[in-house]
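Data card: per-record layout.
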Amino acid sequence: MSKTLVTGGTGFVGRAVVVELLARGREVRVLTRQPEHPSLAGLPVEIMAGDLRDPQVCRAALQGCDRVFHVAADYRLWVPDPAAMYAVNVEGTRNLMDAAAQAGVSRAVYTSTVGALGNPGDGTPGTEDTQVSLGDMVGHYKRSKFLAEQVVLDFARRGLPVVLVHPSAPVGPWDARPTPTGQMILDFLKGRVPAYLETGLNLIHVRDVAVGHLLAEEKGRVGEKYILGCQNLSLSQIFRMLADFSGIPAPRVRLPYYPVLAMAYLNEFWATYVSGKPPRMPRAAVQMAKKFMYFDSAKAVRELGLPQTPVTQALIDAVAWFREHGYV
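The structure for this 328-residue chain is written out next.
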């Protein structure tokens, strides 16, 4: 049996994809820069140490593999050296897609993000076809993922059997680092959210995102995009849901946008030129909050059969995992 390569298998979504593949009896190879990462402990996978920025590593990783899930990405809302992020997200993707084409894989699934899609911002959900350009991208992460997506689409046009999936905001267990959404939940549980800046997110259980990857591999159309999302919720609604089962009161003070943005600029200036540590309030995060990031996952539900686990369950599972593993 040929193996399936997963990049980013130590990450939140990547690990979930690995677990789903193993549950279906697949042989899995994980390419990672952190071969000793604890998230893979106990999982029967082949671990290969290496960096996507090295084309030779990408070619070696795909030897004996017929399928590839490219989940890895440099996901930070603030980065001291943006060039490093573009090297991983854009050039690393180009290296892997080129290696996949040379290896003649029968299927590739590329993990993009809803952040690279168009979004009206007024509460109207965005779709896979909403118009968007590079100029609409806020921050280096979104810009790099938008550019990487163009690379993948170009390979699809040239014959690589690749499908693109766009997770919204995954929630659930094993958010070890954690993601910005997971950090928001942690901050709430620790009582660090006395006030909030209203915005909107589309949440989905991380397990459904992983299943969506496998469904895209099986049923997705080459070169097509699929939003892996579930429920659109305002931030205040999310906090009320967390309050309902955590016993921690939801914040009631809603902050105005522009004073918070000014604070974010100061916070990022301090991080960049003084402390060298990531800012508690990245400017890109505040700028993103101005738009309600609502999305419509009907296409993935219709064409792939994407599961829709209730978001309440995703939040309950995330809170339980954080508490069980000493984060709170």
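Known properties of this structure: The longest helix spans residues 82-103. The CA atoms of residues 141 and 213 lie 21 Å apart.

See the next section for split statistics.
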